[in-house]
Description:
The structure holds two protein chains of two kinds. Chain A is mainly α. Chain A has two domains: 4-69; 106-236, Tetratricopeptide repeat domain (Serine Threonine Protein Phosphatase 5, Tetratricopeptide repeat). Helix content of chain A is 76%, strand content 0%. Chain B is mainly alpha-helical. Chain B is 72% helix and 0% strand. Chain B has helices at residues 2-5, 7-15, 19-38, 44-65, 74-98, 118-127, 132-143, 148-154, 160-181. Chain B is globular, with a radius of gyration of 20 Å. The termini of chain B are far apart. In chain B, 23% of the residues are buried.
Amino acid sequence: MMEHEELIQGYFKQSLSEADSQKVIRLLKEDSEFKAAFETYQQMHMAFKKAEYDNLKAQLQAVESKISEQTKPWYIQPWLRYAAASVLVIALGVNFFFGGSDNLYDDYFETYPNVYQPVIRGAASTSISDAFVFYENGEFEQAAASFEQLLAQQDDVNLKFYRAMALLNAGDTQQALPLLEQLSETAFEFQTESKWYLALTYLKLDQKENAKSQLEQMDAIDAEFKAEQRNSILKEI
Amino acid sequence: MERNTDPQNLESRLRADDKSALEQVYKLYREEFLNYVKRYKIDDAQAMDIYQDTIIAMHQNFVTKQLQLQQSSLKTYLFGIGKNKVFRYLKLSDRHLRWEADFEDQELESPEEPGLSPQQKLLARKLNQISERCREVLLLFYFRNLTISEIVEQTHYKDVNTVKSHKSRCMKNLKTLMGVDQ
């Protein structure tokens, strides 16, 4: 003989035998106490069904919004946008801390033209013109070596300047630096240029204050030379 | 991972009211179900709604009836429920269209709450406001249809009498809570 409680639970579980189902129907008609218990149970069951439905619906909607987010194009997906932004920030940061000045050097450095001694093709070669031929052909290491040999024979400030230029182009900053420091304090044809290249060299070595000072001094000598570039650099450092 | 997607395992987790199993099933058949519903010319938002209701109905059948699938697979069962819901939706919207003039303001009733009385709706709200422990014992008894001894087996309650007294205390609380709003 099943307890009333068991009958009611079985009814909602849909696990009652045919005979027990008939019994529930009969008790609902005849037993008011059973009827009240049944109705309370039904109220609670339906209310829970609704409450659980609402909770599950919210849960599935949250799952769904995650799924549809994943299928959006990358730039609409928030996390990828943030990822892209952080890559950019990191790149800028790395650039700022490690490569910033070097990049300024690369941005602004250009080989200074040979304005000292035009290379006359086919002319009987002198060692000075040899050096400039190397220089103009972009063979900067040989050019630097040739200028060095020439300088050993004669002290010439202009040749010094081109040696420094050849060294810079060859990537030999260490040797170029003392030459440029000396030249930038010398009054001669390429003093402004010397200061300019010295400033760039300082930037490459991350000596911003020194670079700044050189760039500012250039105004006094030649306000026109690289004025635009100087202003941009001064704004950036 | 393999163990978790095993159908038998999924079913027993659904019976145990495991909500993460529900999410798993949801993701598993979502694509296929939405494609299936497309043929009935139901718009995307509505199809999504039907799928979610189908998943919930499936879950509630597992939870309240301790359903054991004898012959069909979980997928067949799910799509069976889904098909019924699609047809019911089509029938309702069709009727709604034809009777639109007469029942202009009548909202389509959600299939999940057929004739839920205002009293039941209020009770449903209150059930989400009572203490966690009360909600649990009442849910296990009234919703999941577990007997008092089954509740003792599945929870930390000491014995049958503790469950009984806690349950009746919680019902009393709930009635008081209901009285406030009546």
